[in-house]
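Support reply, case 0932

Customer input (verbatim):
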Amino acid sequence: MISDIIKWVIVFMGSLILQTSFVPIITVAGIKPDLLMVALFFFSIKYGVMPGIFVGFALGLGQDLYSPSLLGQNALTKTIAGAFIGLFNERMMRSDPFIKTALLFVAFLIHDALYFIIQIIKLGDPIATLFAGLFVKSLPRALYSIVFAVLFYIWELIPKPAIRK
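Our regenerated output:
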């Protein structure tokens, strides 16, 4: 139990550090992967709705405190994304990587749609910017982030050495 908590704290802190330091280096045409969302996805898939909500809120709040966006915007969107992923996992028992990848893609779209809706309300932009943002920013970002999720899948498939006591 404690080792799982320590492992996930390391994953989340590592994702935040990589998101702020390494991701700007690998940006392609202004598109950055969201490693925190990928980490939240794997956590919510494993533990369900309520832990996904709490961790999504904590990750989003940490991201809000670090970024200059509206305070609470990332916290709200990551909370809803964590709840969606955890709820889908509890209702559907399919565990093949293709379904999980499709779920991650949909979770990115939901996360980004909510993010853009908050931006539209805050800035008073027309609703057409929502669709433009989803097609121009969200779709490529989701696909780019899925590449990193596949790396996590490969890492999970590597056999771990048994620990002798």
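We compared this against your earlier run and they match. Two observations from our side: The first helix runs from residue 2 to 21. The chain is about 75% helix and 0% strand. Please reopen the case if you see a mismatch on your end.
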